[in-house]
């Protein structure tokens, strides 16, 4: 977790919000008995098994197991990390968290709120203004971008005027604030201000929390610079921001894979063709901060840059940057000097998907790129290639991957495997290297599993009570009422006794909707775990064993009394319990022997 905050910021957030309000702002929630219920947003279902407890401020899905508090819900639904989820909730529910921020971060929420407000209002103006420009609308239409696409990405247009945005926003905000968010530039005299963006298609840059933090502007002709981005500000850091992540993060529920492209139009083209997990850097080279940001959301990154020389160099540089940051990185080779947008237009979705499926691993791409500079039919150049290739392979930490590339290189160039392996492993080479071992392998000790017998007995009783309630006689029910259980089990027993006092049949759905969420969670887990054992449970044996456990607990208490109190009454109770325990043990032993003979 980030060290950005200190003290109990998370407790403060949870104390100031209601989980029902938070969740119902995303999905339809309805009251059901003691709890609220909904169709789970984290897996597909027809019967609501997503239960929310307002009393405990917790949710639990009995279908997929998702559970937690309001912060956890926002993290999972919005695909945010803990800090971002907290900041989103604080902003949405007007909780001032500035006093919890460390050092230089300690500024009031209203200080940053004004910046976000300015950029939001600017985005709204640019968006509305786009429809008044025939040239801008025609340009986007020529790029196959529809009005629905414009709405999805919030695209806009800045007029070809020196003080257009100033005229729109200066009545509400001071010019210094407009400068701080990068919308205007001061003149040389320091007195007048001018619009930074003029005559450009505007791309709002939105962070994962849904806040506009900057803009990118693209010309509609060949003038330079082709793209102009907002400068670094207090809320916009290019090295820590990815265009399209606000949308892409919502596409990562099933497959945590991000495609990283080079520009705004590539991202938009990918999204519009169904590749909604695409993002891009903002006019800067990929950084380790970008890598760490992507790692929050994805387990795999696919680099999909232009196929020209510059794109190939950028791909190699990105592989070096992401090394050690993201474990699984692959590279798409589109060919023909095409970028993703052009490739999709020329070959379509299926061919592009095939390219993604065939994306090279980092090592494959490095070796493939290296190979382009050599004529492998020439012996001298083949030796030079091999000398550089073994260095690339030697950098791998995974022994199986290392040996795979050694074998491929050996087969492809018709070179003895051991010779290649010796160059890769150097002083660590031995005759076991061929099998993926670079040293002695240690045997792992087997982990022994232990079972809590008492817990097992209690769970058997609960499972039998629910599934075979009609088979319990009155004496057995009375005995169960007298038992002393652990606190958690006692709550469950009390609930199911109450449940069957007003119901004749068992309904799993009704239990999870009406029980305390802690009880229903534990109860359903027991039912699911023991469903295959119910027919085999000997309830008399279970009850007798629990009774013995209860007697042992009472005997422990009496033993303590006997150390300080030698009354006849205490001694008689001691003897009574001992005799009772022996009688029950004989029954248990007799029944166990009878079963073993069977």
Automatic annotation (TrEMBL):
CHC2-type zinc finger locations on the chain: 40-64
Pfam families associated with the record: DnaB_bind, DNAG_N, Toprim_2, Zn_ribbon_DnaG
Free-text comment on the cofactor: Binds 1 zinc ion per monomer.
Residue runs in coiled coils: none
InterPro entries assigned to the protein according to its UniProt record, in alphabetical order: DNA_primase_core_N_sf, DNA_primase_DnaB-bd, DNA_primase_DnaG, DNA_primase_Znf_CHC2, DnaG_bac, DNAG_N, DnaG_primase, TOPRIM_DnaG_bac
EC top class, as a word: transferase
Toprim domain sequence ranges: 256-337
Catalytic activity from the UniProt record: ssDNA + n NTP = ssDNA/pppN(pN)n-1 hybrid + (n-1) diphosphate
Cofactor(s) needed for function: Zn(2+)
Record family assignment: Belongs to the DnaG primase family.
Family annotation (HAMAP family): DNA_primase_DnaG
NCBIfam families: dnaG (TIGR01391)
Protein known as: DNA primase
Species this protein is from: Fusibacter ferrireducens
